[in-house]
Amino acid sequence: MAWFRKDKKPLKAQDRRDLPSDVFDKCPGCSEILYRERLAQNLNVCPACDHHLKIAAEAYLSILADSGTFEEIDAHLRAADPLGFEDLKAYPDRIAAAEAKGKTEAAISGTGKLDGIDIVLTVMDFAYIGGSMGSVVGEKIARAGRVALEREIPFLIVSASGGARMQEGMLSLMQMAKTSTVLARLHEASIPFISILTNPTTGGVTASHSMLGDVNIAEPDALIGFAGPRVIEETIKQELPQGFQRSQFLLEHGMVDCIVDRRELKKTVALVLRHQFAGWTE
Description:
Blueprint: E1 24-26, E2 33-35, H1 36-41, H2 57-64, E3 71-73, H3 91-100, E4 107-114, E5 117-124, H4 135-151, E6 155-161, H5 169-188, E7 193-201, H6 203-206, E8 215-218, H7 229-236, H8 247-252, E9 258-259, H9 265-276
Parallel strand pairs: 5-6, 6-7, 7-8, 8-9
Antiparallel strand pairs: 1-2, 3-4, 4-5
Helix pairs in contact: 4-5
């Protein structure tokens, strides 16, 4: 009775035809066509190859913070244009375009609970000018760190960034020192800081707070580094190793402590806090 049975096969690109664009997504890793609803239920991790597709900053908030516990802080802070920067597009126009998407800055900070543990959480938002770190992002991270210091609770940062925001010049670079200083104060007070690195985490963000965690956790196959691979190859005139600046390469060379599947992220962070920093979970 084989003619009554239809074998289930993965949907390929050629099978998609004229189906609505809001129904399916194509996996960048294996090129499978995936039902968007099913993909969302799987936290935007491809069920066929486990490739981690990018997700919004708000999605990380819902993954990490217990339902109904996250309360945003410093939401009123907005970027200015202290240098009057102009390139192909004036900086105020870039800000306006980002805000038109419903974004207010490249970082969201707040307090909440993670598996019942009080935390301060900052999530960088790549959708706002590439998650670049300008004065407001640095100030938000610094203020969030000070809240963790005052309340003596763990601090988490989810990084996703192209680096320092060039439209703010030296003021942007100063945020590297500002964020690192606050984290040093947390370290001196023995207050846990966990850094979660997603794809991509590059430039001045990598060179400051994202690599300063008591525990550095990376998502699978995330691009993590300072300068991009192409820039490095052109500078040193050598071909880079396979997988250079990807999570696994960094793990093998001691730059990150573990690689964690997004679906296991909350459970892993809670486990780390309870076992490594037991005094902060009572």
